[in-house]
Design goal:
The protein is α/β, with parallel strands linked by helices. The chain is about 50% helix and about 15% strand. It has a domain of about 140 residues: 3-Layer(aba) Sandwich (Beta-carbonic Anhydrase, Chain A).
Length: about 210
């Protein structure tokens, strides 16, 4: 069972991301640590990461963590569905992991697809892609309505940028309140659930105030 608290794990991820960002400007390039295989009998991840499937966001690299350090759940748009909630419950109960990070990122394709579907409702999408878009749409819809109410032309890039963070916050809320197990652990202080956004241009992870 993990002995690392949520706050300690959060500090580890922040420090790891600082090392990663520093390495991007280093003449030797990215961090090149030799991976070490971990025990086949146990795992003790310090954090659970619910992140987007985007290939440009390699979670272990972004936080400079090794094999076995992170329990990673990836799905387009970092959306929350029963399987993702169950995965978080499993890791929190089975391994004693005390930190959950919902990790979104700039220029997210799933969020962009949601914004485009909202602004072009006649656009065709497969039922499976639509199921992802539908999970993102509530946070995007609210932002779009606020922007439209101002009477000004909606800036799609700004809307996408704000929607990425709104979607992260919505996923954090859904995790906190979509499971009695998770909700009880959060309320008792056993589990910390936070949101974050990865910047594709800089490599920096910004943790959000929920």
């Amino acid at each position: 069972m993990s002995k690392v608290t949520g706050e300690q794990a959060l500090s580890m991820l922040k420090e790891g991301n600082d090392r990663y960002v520093a390495s991007l400007s280093d003449k030797d390039g990215l961090i090149q640590t030799t991976p070490k295989l971990v025990s086949v009998d146990e795992q003790n991840p310090v954090a659970i990461i619910l992140g987007c499937s985007d290939a440009r966001v390699p979670v272990e690299l972004v936080f400079d963590q090794g094999l076995g350090d992170l329990f990673v759940i990836r799905v387009a748009g970092n959306v929350v569905a029963p399987s993702q909630i169950g995965s978080v419950e499993f890791a929190a109960e089975k391994f004693g992991t005390r930190l959950v990070v919902v990790l979104g990122h700039s220029h997210c394709g799933a969020v962009t697809a949601c914004v485009e579907a909202l602004m072009n409702p006649e656009q065709k999408q497969s039922p499976n892609i639509r199921s992802i878009v539908d999970r993102i749409s509530p946070s995007v819809y609210n932002l779009h309505e606020i922007a439209a109410a101002s009477g000004e032309e909606v800036d799609i890039n700004m809307l996408i940028d704000r929607s990425v963070r709104a979607n992260v916050r919505m996923s954090v809320s859904q995790l906190k309140h979509g499971s009695r197990i998770i909700e009880d652990m959060v309320d008792s202080g056993e589990l910390l659930v936070v949101g974050a956004e990865y910047d594709l241009k800089t490599g920096k992870v910004k943790f959000l105030n929920n």
